Amino acid sequence: MDIYLPIAGLSVNALVIVLLGGVVGLLTGMIGVGGGFLTTPILIFYGIPPAVAVASATTQITGTSVSGVLAHRRRRGVDYRMGAVIIAGGLAGAGLGGIIFRLLQKTGQIDTVINMLYVLLLGSIGVLMAKESATALEIIGPRGGQPPKPKRHNPLIASLPMRWRFYASGLYISPLAPLLLGFVGGMLTVLLGVGGGFIMVPAMIYVLGMSAQVVVGTSLLQILFVTAATTLIHATTTKSVDVVLAGLLLLGSVIGAQFGARFAQKAKPELLRMFLAIVILGVALRMAIGLGWRPEEIYTVQLL
Amino acid sequence: MRGAARALLLLAVAALTLGAAKPRLVPDVSQSRIEIRYQFTGVELLLFGAILYPGGRAPAEQADIVVVVKGPVQPLVVREKQKVAGIWMNVESARFRSAPSFYAVASSRPLPKLVDDRAAAIYELGLRNLQLSPGPGSSPEVQRRFESGLVELMARRGLYVEDPKGVQITEGVLYRAHIAIPARVPVGNYTAETFLIKDGRVLAGATRDIRIEKLGFERWVAQAANRWALAYGIVAVGLSLLLGWGAAALFRRR
Q1: pLDDT of residue B103
Q2: Interface contact flag, B88 A241, Cβ < 8 Å
Q3: Which residues of chain A make contact with B37, given a CB cutoff of 8 A?
Q4: What is the interface pTM, i.e. ipTM, of the complex?
């Protein structure tokens, strides 16, 4: 069933897009990641202009994170104060990211930068996750006997001035640290069309030391707000949000997310993380090959 | 379609009795307005018409027909990737001020057999003869490299097409050609030019306009995204919130 995308300016098979959304939604429900890191590259492989792919994937992530936030709110898994600080940072980061995006677009380096960031981020996170889940599944033994117990409070963050109390997270730290973290997350959202959950969640646990019950909910809250703001930024600057494309993706992903959440209750979480790690490494490898191999098309065209 | 063809036949017959000094072309296209709607996957244009010879008799030696469909011109940048430190990235670039967004040429015989380089350049016949108006500051060799890069890329996307046997001529007076318009063409005013060529000279030419536009929902979305960008963005966000919340509510009830 072919359908014409009014902003992308080409026709796609609607079923393929809905199915893609469904698979990504399944992952979201199962593991709690937004899945933007899968949607955007696959849309680009499919022939959607990169700017439209990034912008529309962002819109889709807003939708999938809503139900997650609602679910976590019901069981008090959201630290609103921490969330507000991270969102403030995220909005500033998104603003700067938008300027960088335009700049890179003008000089023609946006695709290379996007690909390199993907390879770096996905590669390192995929390796970390694979290692961690393999240890949990006892495929590989823990290195050197007992691993050192991670310190709850990072000394660098403890030394920052102006401490605030974050009750739900059980923290007494300077708001500058989460502000900065949110800033980086917001920039990635604009540049890569990802929610950034796959970076925010580990950073909130290991760098900020937030208590685990509020990490996913707070991260989803941040993703919700920052992707909504990013959609607005893209809509007003690059004008590349395609509602038809986003709608098709959403149709698949919101349903996929619900099934994924049910499936997650039955499956082993370590196994799921292992699976995700393999998917992430696969995407990273594909993009790395794309950077190093002689591309099929040496020339690219950009309208002025 | 059949009605139009019959009308043309009548025209051709009428011309037999008139007689003019030079041959004339009576061209037409199957669709002068192409509407992009939600299921648009491109269209096949039929360009057809009659050749009216003075005295009404087709000469013994058949003339040739070339049809060209051109989209609105647009300024663009072509970038060239080179390997830098193991990574393929855009290094050099060239600007073109007036590259056609779509260009399709069909002829009754291969173009090099019909016209010489000069005539081909004047009438922009063939993918090697597009008037791209390159930007200032680069040597001719570099320009040519980027030009062929652009033409190859557009050809791969189906936006630049050359069909050396795409025109059929019946009885020396009626011609027809099919030209495929892919879904990813931009909207705007297109032209369909027809040339009558004999012994390397263009004897007659005629032009018809074709308009490609988005209609209905597609037009509305594209306009909204441009004119009311902020409202459009808010609607997009609202839509995604609604769908996400709706699915969650629906599944919880079950």
Answers
A1: 94
A2: no
A3: 4
A4: 0.80
